[in-house]
């Protein structure tokens, strides 16, 4: 009698599905690894055809049909473990159906296709920041396997579909915010062992970095938006300053600062009503919409709206469900919120808010769930970059279009 098994793994690929099942060989697993896998509920010793790269994993339930467990959705490929027995991830195989046996049990794996993938970002990362300028996508900083905060800078050319390495940021950091203004890119705040007030300015034509005016309130995980000649840097987190202590490693802030691109000076804006970071935001039609995010005690579903003319905040309709560590941008006059996390769950959910109707709606899901990704809008579509699942940094680059057809273009 077969037992229900929880398997860790997610498979994505660019290949078309094969109609012919392939029976791969079993891979030997050391006894100590077998014990570790058994404790985690992971199926040991499975190796599928040649893989392309590391991909993320998460827990997926299976159902039993007769004598064959039919694995629903995303399933594991070759398991990769570190020397101390920690699961690093799995390797990607071509989409299709695979049959294999472990002992007396026969299994059937269905490997899914990643329909909207673009060339991987050069460095797998989470908590990076991104923006677009003059038809190109820029990605800065973040965390990677080799460092807790990095200064990496890369540019994606949508015409050639190639990534280019740029000069690194002068000071590595993660959880910063990036926006473009006046032909230059501003990388604001962030974390590099402590919260940062620094603003790094990149000139794409000269490929040179310079130091911009620092913000008054050092913080990370804020969100930034551009309207006209101004940059709005909203909310975020900072290390605990309360004499009574904090409920987590830090505390959220309500700080709002506005950079005038003409004067080059920051000024204080009206405080964000709800202290939070890791939210999604976008400037649409004279207003800035801030949705979701993480507060001191968990995720929010709160939507708050900043009127740039009056300088005042108002409350909008709550999101369908709370979310944090998500990505956001404007597409077609709507605020889109991508992925993120809710409790211990990684999300592939996408929802959008229409300022005209004041309502939310559910959109097509991401190819796969992840948190700590970033979004950059270009040509009415979103480039969704990096992210993390269960501690594994991702090289993902997914193109999301809300109302078009075909690979990389939406539904």
Can you describe this structure?
With 411 residues, the protein is mainly beta. The protein folds into 2 domains: 6-111, no CATH class; 129-400, Neuraminidase. The protein has 1 helix and 40 strands. The strands form 13 sheets. Strands 10-11-12-13 form a 4-stranded antiparallel β-sheet, with no helix packed on it. Strand 16 (199-203) and strand 17 form a beta hairpin.
Q: TL;DR?
A:
The protein is an all-beta fold. The protein folds into two domains: 6-111, no CATH class; 129-400, Kelch-type beta propeller (Neuraminidase, 6 Propeller).
Give the SSE map.
Blueprint (H helix, E strand, L loop, with lengths): L5 E3 L9 E5 L8 H10 L13 E2 L3 E7 L2 E4 L7 E3 L5 E5 L4 E7 L2 E7 L17 E5 L2 E5 L12 E5 L4 E5 L10 E5 L2 E5 L10 E5 L4 E5 L10 E5 L2 E5 L2 E3 L10 E3 L3 E5 L4 E4 L11 E5 L2 E5 L2 E2 L2 E2 L3 E5 L4 E4 L11 E5 L2 E5 L2 E2 L2 E2 L3 E5 L4 E4 L11 E5 L2 E5 L2 E2 L2 E2 L3 E4 L11
Parallel strand pairs: 2-8
Antiparallel strand pairs: 1-4, 3-7, 4-5, 6-7, 8-9, 10-11, 11-12, 12-13, 14-15, 15-16, 16-17, 18-19, 19-22, 20-21, 22-23, 24-25, 25-28, 26-27, 28-29, 30-31, 31-34, 32-33, 34-35, 36-37, 37-40, 38-39
CATH architecture classification of the largest domain: 6 Propeller
Alpha-carbon Rg, integer = 22 Å
Compute the average pLDDT: 77
Strand order of the largest sheet: 10-11-12-13
Distance between the termini: 41 Å
Task: Predict the CATH topology of the largest domain.
Answer: Neuraminidase
Shape: globular
Total of DSSP H or I helical runs spanning 4+ residues: 1
Largest sheet: 4 strands, antiparallel
Count of strand segments: 40
CATH class of the largest domain: Mainly Beta
Range of helix content: under 10%
- Count of individual domains: 2
pLDDT < 50 stretches: 1-30, 40-93, 107-112, 404-411
Strand % is 35-45%
- What is the fourth-level CATH superfamily of the largest domain? Kelch-type beta propeller
């Amino acid at each position: 009698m077969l037992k229900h098994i929880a398997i860790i793994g997610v498979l994505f690929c660019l290949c078309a599905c094969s109609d012919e099942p392939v029976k791969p060989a079993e891979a030997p697993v050391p006894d100590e690894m077998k014990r570790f896998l058994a404790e985690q509920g992971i199926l040991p010793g499975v190796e599928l055809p040649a893989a392309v790269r590391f991909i993320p994993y998460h827990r997926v339930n299976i159902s039993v049909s007769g004598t064959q467990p039919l694995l629903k959705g995303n399933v594991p490929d070759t398991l990769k473990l570190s020397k101390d027995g920690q699961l690093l991830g799995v390797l990607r195989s071509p989409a299709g159906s695979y049959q294999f046996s472990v002992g007396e049990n026969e299994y059937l794996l269905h490997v899914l296709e990643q329909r909207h993938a673009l060339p991987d970002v050069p460095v797998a990362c989470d908590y990076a920041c991104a923006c677009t300028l003059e038809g190109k996508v820029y990605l800065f900083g973040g965390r990677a396997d080799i460092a807790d905060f990095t200064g990496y800078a890369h540019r994606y050319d949508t015409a050639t579909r190639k990534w280019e390495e740029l000069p690194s940021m002068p000071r590595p950091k993660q959880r910063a915010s990036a926006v473009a203004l006046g032909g230059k890119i501003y990388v604001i705040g962030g974390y590099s062992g402590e919260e940062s007030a620094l603003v790094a300015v990149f000139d794409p034509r000269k490929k040179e970095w310079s130091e911009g005016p620092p913000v008054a309130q050092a913080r990370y995980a804020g969100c930034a938006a551009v309207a006209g000649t101004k940059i709005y840097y909203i909310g975020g987190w900072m290390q605990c300053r309360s004499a009574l202590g904090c409920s987590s490693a830090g505390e959220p802030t309500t700080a709002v600062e506005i950079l005038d691109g003409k004067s080059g000076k920051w000024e204080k804006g009206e405080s964000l009503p709800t202290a939070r970071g890791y939210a999604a935001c976008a400037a649409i039609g004279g207003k800035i919409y801030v949705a979701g995010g993480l507060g001191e005690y968990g995720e929010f579903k709160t939507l708050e709206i900043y009127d740039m003319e009056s300088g005042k905040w108002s409350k909008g309709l709550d999101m369908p469900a709370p979310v944090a560590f998500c990505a956001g941008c404007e597409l077609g006059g709507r605020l889109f919120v991508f992925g993120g996390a809710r409790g211990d769950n990684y999300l592939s959910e996408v929802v959008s808010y229409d300022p005209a109707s004041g309502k939310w709606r559910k959109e097509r899901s991401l190819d796969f769930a992840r948190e700590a990704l970033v979004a950059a809008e270009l040509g009415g579509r979103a480039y969704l970059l990096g992210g993390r699942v269960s501690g594994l940094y991702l090289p993902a680059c997914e193109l999301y279009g809300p109302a078009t057809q075909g690979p990389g273009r939406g539904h």
